[in-house]
Design goal:
The protein is of the alpha+beta class. It has helices at 6-13, 17-24, 49-61, and strands at residues 3-5, 39-41, 44-48. A hairpin with a 2-residue loop joins β2 (39-41) and β3 (44-48). InterPro entries: AlpA.
Length: 63
C-alpha cells in the first residue's frame, strides 16, 4: 500500500487544489461522496494511491 500527499493527488487527477478540497468537503456544492477519504498521519493528509487510481478508472468508465 502506497500513500501519496494531497499535492500528488490533485496533480495526478489534473485538477486544482481548490477543486480537490471542494470534492472532499461535505459542505461544498461540488462535494463527491464517493471520493476516497484521506488518512491523517502526523498532521499530514495522505491518500491511498490505489483508491485514487480506482476513482480515476471509475470516472473513465462513465464517459
Amino acid at each position: 500500500m502506497k500513500y501519496i500527499r494531497t499535492k500528488d493527488v490533485y496533480t495526478k487527477l489534473g485538477i486544482g487544489r481548490t477543486t480537490l478540497f471542494d470534492w472532499t468537503n461535505p459542505k461544498s456544492p461540488r462535494y463527491i461522496p464517493r471520493f476516497p477519504k484521506p488518512i491523517t498521519i502526523n498532521g499530514s493528509k495522505l491518500y491511498i494511491e490505489e483508491e485514487i487510481e480506482s476513482f480515476m478508472q471509475t470516472l473513465a468508465a462513465k464517459r
